[in-house]
Amino acid sequence: MSGHIAWKDVSAKTVADYGIFSVTERLSIGPHGREGRFVVLDAPEWAVVVPVLERGGGRALVTVRQYRHGLGRACVEFPGGVVERGEDPATAAARELLEETGYRAGRLVALGSPSPNPAFMANRLHVFVALDLESAGQQSLDEHEFVDVDVQPEDRVLAAVGDPPWDHALMTAAAWYYRRWLEKGRPA
């Protein structure tokens, strides 16, 4: 279907490794027969989870607030983080939920796996919804992780996504997948 626009990789060389991502320079041949050099960020897969609490006939979402160095301020988000090498994305989502919020999911439903920026990134974001939550105790945060937990009505969260402090684009994608899941009647 898109073979006529595909590029063929000739070589790839890692030019820098920063731990959280590495930079690869790729030499590729285009459909026009010419070579081009392209830079790709090789980052780990990420997982984010939309945690749902059923309360008094309504739904609330568990959210987290944490400082983001790229923006130089705090963002409000859904729990999430890096999928460790060899780890299943659902396992990572459940782990991040527990570590950041102290909640354990009775059930996780996969909602989608978009590419954060396919122009130059070679990873995916795995989005889940967490259902049948139970409090499992306290947070278990990493050394440099400071996370405030909040529970807000679902409609308030979904109305805020996209605007500061809900302007993290990956959270906007997660909210979109969650809304689509709701519109489809919450399939398991």
Explain this structure.
- With 188 residues, the protein is of the alpha+beta class.
- It folds into 2 domains: 3-42, no CATH class; 46-183, Nucleoside Triphosphate Pyrophosphohydrolase.
- It has 3 helices and 12 strands; from the N terminus they run βββββββαβββββαα.
- It has helices spanning 89-101, 154-160, 169-183; strands at 8-17, 22-29, 35-42, 46-55, 58-68, 73-77, 80-82, 103-104, 107-112, 125-131, 134-135, 147-153.
- Strands 4, 5, 6, 7, 9, 10 and 12 form a 7-stranded mixed sheet that branches. Strands 1-2-3 form a 3-stranded antiparallel sheet, with no helix packed on it. It has a two-stranded antiparallel sheet with strand order 8-11.
- A hairpin with a 4-residue loop joins β5 and β6.
- The radius of gyration is 19 Å and the shape is elongated.
- The relative contact order is 0.18.
- The model has no long low-confidence stretch (mean pLDDT 95).
Helix-strand makeup class? alpha+beta
Number of strands: 12
Order of helices and strands: EEEEEEEHEEEEEHH
- What's the number of domains? 2
How many helices does DSSP assign? Answer: 3
Q: Could you report the average pLDDT, rounded to the nearest whole number?
A: 95
Shape call: elongated
Uncertain regions spanning at least 5 consecutive residues = none
Report the sheet with the most strands, covering strand number, pairing sense and barrel closure.
7 strands, mixed
Name the CATH architecture of the largest domain. Answer: Alpha-Beta Complex
Helix content: 10-25%
* CATH superfamily label of the largest domain: Nucleoside Triphosphate Pyrophosphohydrolase
